[in-house]
């Protein structure tokens, strides 16, 4: 399978079948709310920037904007969970039960735990909690369907083609590759790769992934958080995030475009698109909801 550019980030597809060897797990927690800079009206913000609003809560920019108010311009900003604030944390009830999760991924690697996914949900409280019950379940199914495709059914944790590993370091970035030339290979449910991806995701999540990219393969919650970071904040080669595609009614096909549209959509690789759609239809059936329209890209 081939590599792709998504938004300003690059991600690698999983290649091969060998299971990785895990290192001892390490934990990570949300950064204090007070650690984020105060929001400033009229200041330009990039997607992924996190600010502390006047009410003490943190918000993450889902789209670049010229300093719009986070509690008014909700298309541009979303609440962001942090320690010490009053932001919502992990939702009390996830629309996918553990039994349904196990049904979706009967052969999954034990690393990809349901508890790790639940622990990651607080990083993006709008995920699978926005809109009607049908919309919530459709978004969860869409996310998990794409994740299943990327990882062979939640089997692979790291990119299997080790020959690619040394290529994911861009020394033109001012921060370089402090973890090493070959440290930024694809990891996690949406195969995060390249030093600038780890920097952007880590900054958004309050976790130092630039210096410790191994957290993504050692800590299940961190791995899930990086996938949710992409789903909720990155448009990739598409025009909207996966989250917005599902909650705004654009349909599952637009989530494919945001993840790998440059290589799969518009007739470029219909078999890969069909694989994602098959996953989505199966998962919505498990959740007892209609898949909706616009399934293809």
UniProtKB/TrEMBL annotation:
Keyword Transport: no
Cysteine pairs bridged by disulfides in the record: 169-177, 265-297
Family matches, as Pfam families: Glyco_hydro_19 (PF00182)
Presence of keyword Disulfide bond: yes
GO MF terms held by the record: carbohydrate binding; chitinase activity
Active site (catalytic residues): 150
GO biological process: carbohydrate metabolic process; cell wall macromolecule catabolic process; chitin catabolic process; defense response to fungus
Record-level GO cellular component terms: extracellular region
SMART domains recorded: ChtBD3
Residue ranges constituting the Chitin-binding type-3 domain according to the UniProt record: 36-80
Signal sequence interval, chain numbering: 1-30
Annotated keywords: Disulfide bond, Plant defense, Signal
CDD domains in alphabetical order: ChiA1_BD, chitinase_GH19
The protein's name: Chitinase
Natural source organism: Streptomyces poonensis
Highest classification ranks of the organism: Bacteria, Bacillati, Actinomycetota, Actinomycetes, Kitasatosporales
């Amino acid at each position: 399978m081939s590599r792709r550019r998504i938004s300003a980030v690059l991600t690698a597809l999983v290649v091969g079948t060998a299971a990785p060897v895990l290192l001892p797990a390490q934990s990570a927690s949300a950064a204090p709310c007070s650690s984020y800079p105060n929001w400033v009206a009229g200041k330009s913000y990039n997607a992924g920037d996190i600010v502390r609003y006047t009410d003490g809560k943190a918000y993450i920019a889902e789209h670049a904007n010229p300093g719009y108010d986070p509690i008014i311009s909700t298309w541009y900003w979303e609440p962001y969970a942090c320690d010490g604030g009053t932001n919502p944390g992990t939702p009390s009830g996830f629309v996918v039960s553990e039994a349904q999760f196990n049904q979706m991924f009967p052969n999954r690697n034990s690393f990809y735990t349901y508890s790790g996914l639940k622990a990651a949900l607080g990083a993006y409280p709008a995920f699978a909690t926005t809109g009607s019950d049908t919309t919530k379940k459709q978004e969860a199914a869409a996310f998990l369907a794409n994740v299943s495709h990327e990882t062979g059914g939640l089997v692979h944790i790291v990119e299997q083609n080790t020959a690619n590993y040394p290529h994911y370091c861009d020394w033109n970035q001012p921060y370089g590759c402090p973890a090493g030339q070959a440290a930024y290979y694809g990891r996690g449910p949406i195969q995060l790769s390249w030093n600038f991806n780890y920097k952007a995701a880590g900054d958004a999540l309050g976790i130092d992934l630039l210096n410790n990219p191994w957290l993504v393969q050692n800590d299940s919650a961190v791995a899930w958080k990086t996938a949710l970071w992409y789903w909720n904040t990155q448009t990739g080669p598409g025009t909207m995030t996966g989250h917005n595609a599902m909650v705004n009614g654009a349909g599952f096909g637009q989530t494919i475009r945001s993840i790998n549209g440059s290589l799969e959509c518009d007739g470029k690789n219909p078999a890969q698109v069909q694989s994602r759609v098959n996953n989505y239809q199966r998962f919505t059936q498990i959740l007892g909801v209609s898949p909706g329209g616009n399934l293809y890209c």
